[in-house]
Amino acid sequence: MRKTFPVAQPFSESEPLAINRQAVESNQVAEIGYDPETKTLAVTFTRGQALYQYPDVEPEKHAEFMAAESKGVFFGAHIKHLPFKKFKLPEVAA
Question: Cβ neighbours of residue 23 under 8 Å, at least 6 residues apart?
Answer without folding.
Answer: 30, 31
